[in-house]
Fold:
Amino acid sequence: MVEGYAESTSLELKLQFSAVKGFYLTLPTPAAKSDDELPDMFINVVRKKRTIEFATLELLQHNSRAEEALTEIYLMSNSTVTELLQVFRSHISVLYKVSEAIAMLDLLVSFGVSCTVSKYVRPEFTSTLAIKAGRHPITDIIQKEPVVANDTFASLSSSFQIITGANMSGKSTYIKQVALLTIMAQMGSYVPAEYASLRLCDQVLSRLANDSVLDMNTSSFMAEMRETAYVLQHVTPHSLVIVDELGRGTAPYDALGIVAAVCETLILSRVSQINEKDPASILKQAICFFATHLHQLTRALAVYPNVVCLQLDAIITQARPIRTTTARSLARSDRSPPTMTAGKTISGARRRAVRCAIRTKSRMVASGRTNSTGFGRRS
Structure:
């Protein structure tokens, strides 16, 4: 049709399309000096800078037919999709089973790939928790440097473990590592370690975050207390509990009292016997890993035989502010004083561009060389 118009009028016509106009014709501006020079068959003439746009009655009829055909296609497609959805609804249970099977296959393939390409080991399930050279599964993948592996052991005689150490020494990573390895093992996955013997847990209770809840008008301290109350109410002899720096939302002395009371409650949590008729059967108690900066707890809770104190040491280098090392157990006669990690924490602040005067003052206060009268005065 367009070729016929071009031959009959001897004009350089081109067919164009837009979503608003549909199909229309265009002509370069130099080919027609004015609208009067165009043939009468061309209507709806629009002159632009470089082109003249117009249409014909025949072209408008074709556009109308195309719109009607498109509308009919939409109606037919809608009817077809509605019928198809009705068929799906009658067989929705099959689709759920197929999706579950695909998800399970994807999970098993992921387990197979992870244990093949990574240094993972098959875990065992016993009455004690023993991990040799365990690594955090997420840090083990995303961290470019080699991950510092840590050993973990917990039994009925060491069911409550206090983890102390400097900032960035890896306390939070250590306790999360134990929880994640337990979850991975009970899912059926291999775990990142050289050896892993884990306990079957009915639940993993955690108190990790320290954020305020604005929509409930709750401060960070109240959020801590609410989560702690939930842990104490739901802990069982088969539970795994991880707590990270409880009491950060209040004063240190108030925090020490609250934390000590919470720790005693967890330490003295009820013990269950696997077979109550057999006195020789294995006893079970909840295992708790408690990371804190309140070093006074190591002395206050030393009277309980099932309390173990661990300290994550840190090495400060020029290339990296703090490099964590493996956890070491503290003897009962060598429990950490409050200022044991202050020097390394302040040295870590030096790597974060904290001013020299602030670091000097912080060392004086931490070592007790500045009393209340001299605090705040210029030297």
